[in-house]
Amino acid sequence: MNPLDIARWQFGITTVYHFLFVPLTIGLSALVAGLQTAWVRTGKRHYLRATKFWGKLFLINFAMGIVTGIVQEFQFGMNWSAYSRFVGDIFGAPLAIEGLLAFFVESTFLGLWIFGWDRLPKRIHLACIWIVSVGTLLSAYFILAANSWMQHPVGYHLDTATGRARLTDFWAVLTNSTMLVAFPHTITAAFVTAGLFVVGISAWHLARRRHVEVFRPSLRMALVVTFVASLGVAVTGDQQGKVMTAQQPMKMAAAEALYTTERPASFSIFTVGTLDGGREIFSVKVPGVLSFLATGHFDGKVLGIDDVQAAEQAKYGAGEYRPIVPLAYWNFRLMAGIGFLTAGIALLGLWLTRRGRLPANRWVWRAGVASLTLPFIGNSAGWIFTEMGRQPWSVYGVLKTSASVSPGVGATSMLVSLLSLTALYGVLLVIETRLLIRYAKAGPPSEEETLGGDDRAEPSLTFAY
Amino acid sequence: MALTTVWFILIAFLWTGYFFLEGFDFGVGVLLPVLGRDEAERRVILTTIGPVWDGNEVWFIVAGGATFAAFPEWYATLFSGFYLPLLAILLALIVRAVALEYRGKRDDAPWRRRWDRALFWGSLVPAFLWGVAFANLVRGVPLNAAHEYAGTVVDLLNPYALLGGLATLTLFVLHGAVFVALKTTGEVRRRAGRVARLAVAAAIVAGGAYLLLTQLLYGKPVTWPAVAAAALALAGAALANARGREGWAFAGTGAAIVLAVVTIFLALFPYVMPSTIAAANGLTTSNAAASPYTLKIMTIVALAITPMVLLYQGWTYWVFRRRIGVPPTPRQPQASPRPVR
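Above: the input entities. Below: the structure tokens describing the complete assembly.
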């Protein structure tokens, strides 16, 4: 393998892995903060038990998000030094601001939250978890601003002397149209992730009728969150599709494996075939839907892969401008399909558990537990589609991925990095998953166990280790 | 003052903060097997850094991000050039952070023992390699005309750099020992004070030799006061520790670390990464810098946010200012989930 391929594999593996933890952190921090608020406001013990239970799972997940994030901050310099030199003037700023504004807030206030149960006044302690939650949103904002610049570079010009991109308008980078649709889409997806995480674990306990006083409210809250957030994902995803069609027509064409321009263009729900532009064996098509997804009109024109390829060759010179089409096609369907599925699951769940009901059928609960995995697959598919669909570019229309890799780093070093990180991540995934399952199954602390700290005259020592 | 100089100072400040804060975290991790004889003591020791270690580590992330934003060339050359040592640091930091977060999550002695070992190595490796990396920065590395690193990993493991590694390792271990003495009570506190006595001797030998060599080989007149002050601070720390004045001892080790970093950055300036091939190949605060516009924006952002960060991080230390001791009747570990069929 050449250094480029190794660096790409490492980026793919480490980023998809990192993003398993990120959306759960974003969504769950808010849900835990919401539960703790309910406890502070009502004083009902089961809210406190729920806060402690979900908070513990949140922390196990958060730790993994942090450690995998360290690699993200530095692999641009390590494996992609040519990219870093080229975009540094623009791309470094949101990264630095993310650290300064968000990471400090998250880490500091999370430390206060974990160890502050006995030390801080109740409301200030509550404020800590809310601040963490806001911190995760700020973090998402700045990193998505950086990514959106790669999708749709704005607010810069190419310096003729150095041949590199120079920032001319930072506000344009922060209000990039791509960013304005990517942020709500990512955040709503994060809430679906956290929602179904809570649904899945609550379902496991409720199937056994265990800790019903904690898990029924948790389940209902999570179902509402999942349903509303799923609708949000669909609406923002639809807007994103239109922005994407205008900015990166190749990505939309690849998402549909549409080789020739059509007007109106139909959407295939699935296809049996090679997706190489030859005749498909079988496909289920809905007329006009692709036109609507891409343009907002059922008879809009959607450019095909071959036409975009010709247009980009005319614009950027000879070369391959097509991404791996089946990858884009199937990941797009996986992402969108899961988006609709989660909305349906949430709605069904709300109906089945209406007015105090708990279904007796075991399969309902099993399906509830299984639904926990869906957002993780959907999130990964969405990002793989977004990033692979942009290829061969690292910065769309400006810098190719092949010109981004570190010229001075040998294949051996990169391979050592790829293999050691992948091995470590693999081991950590096993450890983390086992720990999560252990805590999830153990259930919330009992009433007596939560009678600590704030009710005592003398603050006790906090042992979190 | 030129904005490039402002950012050189800001980045030096971030690294200084990182080594001052995470320095004692590293020391605590390395000393855990020595200072904590049983589980209760080990928990006391880890609780001293529990609420703060993650916030301390963010200083490194922000130093990296700020380097990317303000000196993209430096970021690109440094992290692609010091590839394998940096990879080792990243792997160690991952293992260490997971160890800190997960060791108490199961009431299981072998589980904890494994994480304690991970914490030891995860603290030792970066404590040593940071010294190696910064010594190489001062010494200069082979950079070609395109500012790409043209050496191998072996070039980075020269005697001067290895001495730099020993210097940071001994300084951080000492800083950690003094911190534990400052933050605990009882037997752990006394033991930490005794360990600090040995550590301060080691730090004076390794740190003193490294700083003196740096002054003689790469120093300038302006670095002399910093080197002398660092030596004084270490001597003061030794004295304060011997007299059981833990607060002063910690101030002394902290000042020594700060002054050592100041020495390194003063010796570097105006270079950020000098080249051993040709002086013109070296990266300076001007040829590595981002555009004036980016620097201006980042300056405004940094000046607006950094004071707040210092305030709330400072508040955290105030909230957790109390010493920690082994409770008279060991409580059931609250973090262990009950088994479930």
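Note for the figure: Residues 3-319 of chain B form a domain with the Formate dehydrogenase/DMSO reductase fold fold (CATH 1.20.1630).
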